[in-house]
Predict the 3D structure of the following.
Amino acid sequence: MGLIDKLRGEFIDIVEWLDDSRDTIVWRFPRYDNEIKMGARLVVRESQTAVFVNEGQIADVFSPGTYTLETQNLPLLSTLKGWKYGFHSPFKAEVYFVNTRQFTDMKWGTQNPVIVRDAEFGMVRLRAFGAFTARVVDAPKLLKELVGTDPQFRTDEVRDYLRQMIVGRLGTALATAQVPMLDLAAHQDAMGVRLAGVLSEDLSSVGIDVPTFIIENISVPPEVEQALDKRTQMGIVGDLQQYTRFQAANALEDAANNPGGGAGEGLGLGMGIAAGQQLAAGLGQASPQPTSATVTQGAQAGSAGPPPLPVRDQWYLGIGGQQQGPFDLAGLAAQVRSGALTATTLVWKAGMPQWAPAQQAPEIAHLLTGTPPPLPQP
């Protein structure tokens, strides 16, 4: 392989990097014995920077463009080599190409939990993960501080280096943010922007910038999640009394709008009693408790007053397949006179198991007697 590289060095006079990867940050140009011909062409593509290194010392840096390697455009290397009147082919130098584009979707995560102090829950262990973007802004610093003599420097090496910094900075950011743990999700974006600035400042010494830092999730231990669930349940139980009163009022309204007999009536009666008890309990809590004097006066007034008036039966009629009513006895008599209520008309009142013909109801049978037949049609 050394012979092939030697022959290649004799005939190839173009120094360039055709990057076909997605994760290479630094690539060293392979040339036999690091020899470069006088007058060779240097091609630096967009999102690249070329750095010449002479015996471990950073020399000349080239931005995107095409160059002919001569003493005029290699001033630092010429000084290091001691070329006063030009150089003779070949000369020795290492050429590093640095990728300066943004490397996106670089994942990060806390390998161990970060301990923070929360005003409500005390000491809490948090885990977090997300993604960030990185780019090289100072190629010589990167070569000097991180790359060294590595012929290929990839994104996973930067990611491993950044993970160590992220864990420390994340704990500091969470502690100084003064954000309650329950509100962390709403502040993840703002914390990501803040951490991007902090990390960029820390990484400026190695020539790396972090344009974007995203916190995708901050999670708490299972025991803290269980405590949050219990707190939510307690909040629901606290409002249960109001919810029960609301349901009781709805039950009373439904019972009034849906009269029925038999089992349905018994069920409605039970619901009504329960609803009444709930409403009475609520009213009892809302109103002041009566004193003994008030109770005594009420009892005396009740014993001296007349008894309650009798409750009149309310009747419903089934006419033409439609329910009509309710009617008291006077109303039924009017229906008899108008011919709407006959002996075969279906009637119902509270206490009857089902609808029945009027002639089978003893309470109203007397209204039907003595009723003249309908007038003959002319």
